[in-house]
Design a protein that fits this description.
Blueprint: E1 3-5, H1 15-19, E2 25-28, E3 31-34, H2 50-54, E4 61-63
Antiparallel strand pairs: 1-4, 2-3
Pfam family, one: Fer4_10
GO molecular function: 4 iron, 4 sulfur cluster binding; metal ion binding
Cofactor: [4Fe-4S] cluster
Length: 64
């Protein structure tokens, strides 16, 4: 299951984009989005999804 970014909570800080090992996060229409085809929840890279770990706003990067 991929992660998603809650658009109404995203501050567009960019922290998540550079932490994603699969380049699944990108800026679209002034908001960050997760490409579910690329998101592996950081499996094989980290113990936890890095978008959620680095996001400064709690519960903004969540399971889809």
């Amino acid at each position: 299951m991929a992660y998603k970014i809650i658009a109404s909570q995203c501050t567009v800080c960019g922290a998540c984009e550079f932490e994603c090992p699969n380049a699944a996060i990108s800026l679209k229409n002034d908001i960050y989005v997760v490409n579910p085809a690329k998101c592996t929840q950081c499996d094989g890279h980290f113990d936890a999804p890095q978008c959620a770990a680095v996001c400064p706003v709690p519960d903004t990067c969540v399971p889809a």
